[in-house]
Amino acid sequence: MSDSVDADEVEHVADLARVALDDEERAEFADQFGDILDYFEALEEVPEVEAEPDLVNVMRSDEVEDSLSQEEALQNAEDSEDGRFKGPKVS
Amino acid sequence: MSLNAYITETEIEGSEDGPLADKTVAVKDNISTEGVRTTCGSKMLEEYVPPYDATVVERLKDAGATIPGKTNMDEFGMGTTTETSYFGATKNPVDEERVPGGSSGGSAAAVAAGDADLALGSDTGGSIRCPAAFCGVVGIKPTYGLVSRYGLVAYANSLEQIGPIAPTVEEAAALLDVVAGPDENDGTTREEGADTDFAGAAEGDVDGLTIGVPTELVEGAEDAVVETFEEAIDDLREQGATVEEVSLPSVEYAVAAYYVIAMSEASSNLARFDGVRYGNSGGYDGNWNESFAEARSDGFGDEVKRRVLLGTYALSAGYHDKYYKQAQEARAWVEQDFDEAFEDVDVLASPTMPILPPALGESLDDPLKMYLADANTTPVNLANLPAISVPAGEADGLPVGLQLVGPAFGEKTIVNAAAAVEN
């Protein structure tokens, strides 16, 4: 299967990623994504490798510690109410 | 500032004494500084002021350093030239018509121009080594887990490390000594980083050292770069090193694997920027998904959108196995290739970048071409290894960097060998 991408597919991915695009961006990205995904397709040639897992879970006990104050946590929010984040109006 | 190396100039004073008491250390603008805005080179975070310091910033302050500013960078670290910054491109102090490399271009430019004694950058796929090479200074990408990422705004967590940029190998190693070490706030940090003395290793004694040169990482480079690289290798041979060719067949797939993994991680990491808790909201109302999509469209530049979308695509149903899973296989293969190479050689050497610094504006139209410039740096991040870029000389009047890669936690070996390149 060729990975050429059309504007509708770009729009679908943009919806999933919550990024609004205009027509010009959709067309440009469709064009560029075709080239980039073609290049990524070379990964199909990569053989299976028996890798030794060198990762281990790092655990700690769940203890109450000092953390940001409510005020600090809210200081970068554009809008807040009663000590809480305030999102966009729904209707 | 004519080079545009800083996004924010400031003066954060450290403690009165310590190993960096008389030094200024510029900090890349994706590393959190309490009370000083940290933009990641993005409009999204233009006014974001962190309520806490990154662990590395605390360590700089404890060591007595003064932080003169937050340096310019490709937006969220996504670029190889520092041209994707919302705050405009940084100029290369060696030739102001050219890019300084990226994404830590502001950090390298500030050091090369003498605006800061030292700097911190971050390296996800070459973002410390590339600008160090292009600006003619030294940069170290530490072994994954050597330096805490607490307070580093995440782009691709499994690949990135904070590291030093400095005029000399010894100064870079000394700065790494200050910031390295375990941190309870970053579960991926390792004990190997405790009480290091990398600066003491900068002896430049390569007598008896075996240097492997991976043919795949030399073949793709421009002739002028290869010529300067080979002169530096000849010089190391004259100093007593043994040089042999090695082959790393997996690295042919490294750029593709790196970009699939980095974009996939980015698409998840950058989901947090919805304009509610921080960042530009754009003031949109109505359906939340649409409001967030508009806010994100306003706040992100083209390269960030490109990577978030491609990452979302690579992880989406029907494509995950083809891209993401295969990229992870390639990553394991690259790790294995390096492991095998280090059974025979002490360090691996290549040109840091296959090209000389491009002219400003030259790279933006063709994203894939820009990605391919990362051919020699990305394999190191995939394999979690340490690497240093040290000036090898000049070609056409422009700096060429030599990259030395070591085994995991082999920082002393690469620091020692890099010091010999300076000799």
Which range best describes the helical content of chain A: under 10%, 10-25%, 25-40%, 40-55%, 55-70% or over 70%?
25-40%
- CATH topology-level name of the domain at 7-45 in chain A: Histone, subunit A
Beta-strand proportion of chain A: under 5%
CATH architecture of chain B: Alpha-Beta Complex
The main sheet of chain B orders its strands as 1-3-2-4-6-5-10-11-9-7-8
Strand order of the largest sheet of chain A: 1-2
Radius of gyration of chain A, in angstroms, nearest whole number:
23 Å
In angstroms, what is the radius of gyration of chain B?
A: 20 Å
Number of helices of chain B: 13
Tell me the span between the first and last alpha carbons of chain B: 33 Å
What is the secondary structure topology, with strand pairs?
The complex is a heterodimer of chains A (91) and B (423).
Chain A: H1 7-16, H2 23-40, H3 70-74, E1 80-81, E2 84-85
Antiparallel strand pairs in A: 1-2
Chain B: E1 6-12, E2 25-28, H1 55-62, E3 67-71, H2 105-112, E4 118-123, H3 129-135, E5 138-141, E6 161-166, H4 169-179, E7 210-214, H5 216-219, H6 223-238, E8 242-246, H7 254-269, H8 288-299, H9 302-315, H10 321-341, E9 347-351, H11 367-372, H12 378-382, E10 387-395, E11 398-405, H13 411-422
Parallel strand pairs in B: 2-3, 2-4, 7-8, 7-9
Antiparallel strand pairs in B: 1-3, 4-6, 5-6, 5-10, 9-11, 10-11
Helix pairs in contact in B: 2-3, 7-9, 7-10
